[in-house]
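Translate sequence into structure tokens.
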Amino acid sequence: MKLNTPSVLLSVTTLSLAGCGSPQKEVKRPNIIFMMTDDHTTQAMSCYGGKLIQTPHMDRIANEGIRFDNCYAVNALSGPSRACVLTGKFSHVNGFTDNASTFNGDQQTFPKLLQQAGYQTAVVGKWHLITEPQGFDYWSILSGQHEQGDYYTPDFLENGQPVTEQGYATDIITDKAIGFIEGRDKSKPFCMMYHQKAPHRNWMPAPRHLGIFNNATFPEPANLFDDYEGRGRAAKEQDMSIAHTLRDDWDLKLLTRKEMLKDTTNRLYSVYKRMPPEVQDKWDAVYARRIEEYRKNNLSGKALISWKYQQYMRDYLATVLAVDENIGRLLNYLEEIGELDNTLIVYTSDQGFFLGEHGWFDKRFMYEECQRMPLVMRYPKAIKAGSISNALCMNVDFASTFLELAGVDIPADIQGASLMPVLENAGKAPADWRKAVYYHYYEYPAEHSVKRHYGIRTQDYKLMHFYNDIDEWEMYDMKADPREMNNVYGRPEYAARQQELLALLKETQDRYQDFDPQEKEKELFQGDRRYK
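Result follows.
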């Protein structure tokens, strides 16, 4: 693979690291591979205790490194999450508040800082930030479908040039990642952002995994039939339910080839036609049984919701399989070339995802299933194998962590905190670590109709405020009510705790300079018709 690499003066490539209690020693600056998927959630990872699927290669990273149990997105939406990762700053500071925003690529990002410090940098896969990447020696990003890209025969923009690749996106992105590593300047450390599209909606598995779960029955979440009693308008007025929002054609794939050819304007046909003929034949055979079952049984009510849930799980989880396989392929390649133990491996997702909890799919809410992100890391020179951390961390922390590990000064305007003190202490947070993580979601009115809200999550409680067209508060006792079914805001027995959390929320907003979000949004969205 040809790399578009500017001439960069190579700086000293050593730094001192404390290796899990051992004496300090000089080591080469580590490579960094940041693996991020789209909409993958801890419920679908066996290293987090998930029972839905086995993910042995993700588990390997956790088992040979560290698993974070309390990592949270600060804005659970694809583009905003990516902007927060790149900049180490919250959405109201980096300017990318929702998926209709445009990322200002001229601003400071951690890849730019690493590049200036002598790292060779790359990003491959999903970008979803509208503007072209900056700060990368090589980039190849998915294009089309509003930058979501396609699963089959995907289009890429590679160093500014359009290219169409044959095959399945998850495999191709890994090919490109390995190609970058093979063709890199081996005198320099490298940092690569390896971003998979999968398992983003509409959950199209690799050809080898089509129908793999057709005979499986997955356990239903306890609150699949949640009626939202005791909660406010936000939960009741969303449009992301399995019952009503999943589309028969796009999501459930309940169209035959004949029906798609009759209506070629259908969105499913637009992606179906990208498949090679032999894959189309397999697709038709796999989904024929589902179509027949749906039309024959004429289900309704809870029975129909349960049936839709099973189809959703079969496609979503089958799409995850290729992600895990390709992580294994990349880890094995690094091992073969002798770079695995000199590379920080990070696996995460842009946020979590609902897998039927509260009757939902998608993300956006501050509720646990989507605010919480998977985060596992492997770097044996600084991370003790088998570590587990309960430290409260956020995706704005990643930039500072990578910079400190690389021996690069962390700019004062970065808002996230480096996780290195946690990593070097086998997962235990320092005594002065943060008391809460912060969240702010902006994209309303828009797809899925999740209302704007902000809040904090502590070790034991969650407080959130829904605003804009409503003014409602929710508070959850996460120890007593981990499924967030009972809003305790305003209950007398929680009055003292509520006041503490309100004070902590104000303190947290002051720290991150998110002053009076109700007024701030008027400044951010003035003149935008979507918000009128």
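Note: The first strand starts at residue 14 and ends at 17.
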